[in-house]
Amino acid sequence: MTTVIDIDARATQHCETTALGVLLRHQGIDLSEPMLFGLGSGLSFIYWDGKNMGFPFLGGRVRPFDLTRNLAARLNLELLVQETTSPRRAWENVAASIDAGHPVGLQLDSYHLDYFGSKVHFGGHVVAMYGYDDHNAYLVDTGQQGGAVSTSLAGLAQARAARGPMTAKHRSFTLTASRNPPRPQSQIVPAITACAGAFLNPPIANLGHRGIEKAGKLVQTWLQRTDNARRDLPQAALLMEKAGTGGALFRNLYRDFLAECTGLFDSGHLRTGHGLYSEAATLWTAAAALITEAGESGDAQCLVQAGAILSDLSRIEHEAMRALNRLGE
């Protein structure tokens, strides 16, 4: 038996916005990936270095699934989320939706997906599932992972059952548009100011502009933080640039969102924010390159330079978010 829904799979960059795009286009809502990211107030920053972590983590977006919740609220979408500890029930939830003609979003651990190029555990990965047969599940992932892809049902089950950081209990979700949804343009300012407010007023020093400032100081110690610099530093930089971030730790996506908004609104505050995030995106890529070079060469001076760039980025992004926050005045 084969059940496959006709979907529009596009080569997009970030996993959660990729899945959201598939689900929303099936509902007749077609938005660019940067617009999905921005309306979901997706931009953030975290510097995390826990006791059980092998190496520090730099994150550039809100927690997994918060973007989906934010977007659903902004566009008045019905978000149906199902979670269970039962693998059998988890499969029934997904199969029932697909059999009824509705693609489903899944949160899972990408490590177990057959097609995934990088075998690293990440429990916050999101895909859209649009079909299955007796052996395989048919998914849409990022363009980097192949777009419309397939994985074995056994691998999918393992990915959904995985436990660890950022995992969910076999989480699946669907989105349904209301009869009279708000115009996306009407939700841009609230989405931007919500994102700016959270960034400007982080509850702890690891987050937002304070987190970037902290990262600028701590990144200079990274050669002492690891016993394998050639592995850990380039890997950290790779995650900033290539791991579904769209480049520059999601700043490219937010820059492009703001650029799209400048075509819809005549606002000096918006133009200021866009210009500063254009500058920030370039600097994040430069910082990642220096971190890679430090790992490959062992040259601590590269990390000093990266730290200086991060210090500048804290100031630049703080200034950008202050300007964007004024859109709500």
Using brief descriptors, characterize the structure shown:
single chain, 329 residues, alpha+beta, seven-stranded antiparallel β-sheet, two-stranded antiparallel ribbon, 9 strands, Lantibiotic ABC transporter, DUF4872, BtrH_N
Write the layout of secondary structure elements.
Layout: E1 3-4, H1 15-26, H2 33-39, E2 43-48, E3 57-61, H3 66-74, E4 78-82, H4 87-99, E5 104-108, E6 125-132, E7 136-140, E8 148-152, H5 153-161, E9 172-176, H6 188-200, H7 208-218, H8 222-225, H9 229-241, H10 251-262, H11 268-297, H12 300-325
Domain Butirosin biosynthesis protein H N-terminal: 14-142
Protein name: Lantibiotic ABC transporter
Pfam family, one: BtrH_N
Could you give a short description of this structure?
The chain has twelve helices and nine strands.
Give the C-alpha Rg. Answer: 20 Å
Question: Overall mean pLDDT score?
Answer: 95
SSE series: EHHEEHEHEEEEHEHHHHHHH
Number of DSSP-assigned strands = 9
Assembly form of the protein: single chain
Question: Which consecutive residue ranges, at least 5 long each, have pLDDT under 50?
Answer: none
Total of DSSP H or I helical runs spanning 4+ residues: 12
Shape: globular
Protein structure class: alpha+beta
Bin the strand percentage: 5-15%
The description of the largest β-sheet is: 7 strands, antiparallel
Helix content bin: 40-55%
Q: What's the N-to-C terminus distance? A: 57 Å
